[in-house]
Amino acid sequence: MSNSNPKVTPSEHSNLEKDPDDWTTGDDPMTDAQASYLKTLSEQANKPDSFAEDLSKAEASKRIDALRAELGL
Questions:
Q1: What is the DSSP letter of 50?
Q2: Are 56 and 38 spatial neighbours (Cβ–Cβ below 8 Å)?
């Protein structure tokens, strides 16, 4: 029996960190949660052009990741 917990330590084959370009629903409109978070991050980073209401889930995720990295979050 293994002592590893997949919720804490995912296996090397985990899809928890899947590239947004590979998402099957990546072309769907961003979620309300993504929109809210992206809006907040774009305001914090003083980059209002990073937010657009017509983004896909995948593009919103990429922009969120970029802004988080820029803000050191």
A1: G
A2: no
pLDDT digit string, tens, across residues 6-51: 566 666 655 566 788 788 877 889 999 999 999 999 999 999 999 9
Q: What's 22's DSSP letter?
A: G
Would the pTM count as exceeding 0.85?
A: no
- At residue 62, what is the residue type? K
Residue environment code for 12-34, b if the CB has 16+ CB neighbours within 10 A, otherwise e: eeeeeeeeeeeeeebeeebeeeb
Could you give the 3-state DSSP secondary structure of residue 29? strand
